[in-house]
Amino acid sequence: MLVGGKTEVFKAHEKALNAMGNPVLYIGDLGKAAVIKVITNMLAFIHLVAAGEALMLSKRAGLDLGVAFEAIKQSSGNSFVHETESQVILNGSYNINFTMDLALKDLGFAMGFGREFGVPLDLAGHTYQTFIRAKEAYGGDAWSSQVVKLLEDATGTDLRAPGFPAELE
């Protein structure tokens, strides 16, 4: 749980917050938790595009996608996004319960923060453009993980592998 606000208010309610979530991270003044939330989502979307490229490269190189998934999971290339969203990509459902519109909203906020704080966000900018193309292709209500379908369509190659769930628990 990410918390922002006055320190004394956080301290007064810390016990209740700990009962609702774990870990509870006090980020700072009001609005700071929103910034870090956008940053973590920005990283997740960048990881998602990267995971799609890694899986497509694996498939086109003739690797078994189940084995490639596990090799990435056990390596320095692993991420939470790979461990979760790659599974519903490999299943073909793409069901991550997070839409393209929501991803674009958060990426837009990230780009705004980059301008506000004077930080060039090259990877986030490229990822934002990729998500815009995915929304144009599949619609705003499509699952955000369908951004990887752009690669599938461009290469005429699907990323299906047996044994992966249609939805994450």
Ends distance: 19 Å
In quaternary terms, these chains amount to: single chain
Structural class: mainly alpha
Count of DSSP H/I helices: 7
Overall outline? globular
Q: How would you state the average pLDDT, rounded? A: 97
Percent strand equals under 5%
CATH architecture label name of the largest domain: Orthogonal Bundle
Question: In what order do the strands lie side by side in the largest sheet?
Answer: 1-2
Top CATH class of the largest domain: Mainly Alpha
Question: Which stretches are poorly predicted, pLDDT < 50 over at least 5 residues?
Answer: none
Give the helix proportion (percent range): 55-70%
SSE arrangement, N to C: EHEHHHHHH
Instruction: Describe the sheet with the most strands.
Output: 2 strands, parallel
Fourth-level CATH superfamily of the largest domain: N-(1-d-carboxylethyl)-l-norvaline Dehydrogenase, domain 2
The name of the CATH topology of the largest domain is N-(1-d-carboxylethyl)-l-norvaline Dehydrogenase, domain 2
Q: Strand tally, please?
A: 2
What number of structural domains do the residues give? Answer: 2
Rg over CA atoms, rounded to whole Å, is 18 Å
